[in-house]
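User: Hey, quick favor. My workstation is busy. Could you predict this chain's structure for me?
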Amino acid sequence: MTKRPGHLCEYDTNKATKKKIDGILQQCASLFANVGMKNQLDVGTLAKAYKEERNLLREIKDIDFQFYTERLKL
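Assistant: No problem, here it is.
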């Protein structure tokens, strides 16, 4: 992806923000990777995973709204 001046998110310019968002996205991926695995990270059902994912994505929205709308397309 080409970065255009004036279109940089805080994600692109702030290392702490990038680290937070990357961690949240990793948690989202982990939710779905562990559904049905009957381990400590298994949330139980796919519906519960989607619900938890929505909560995590709201955290991203609070951290960097521009990243949330432009990169996640939500």
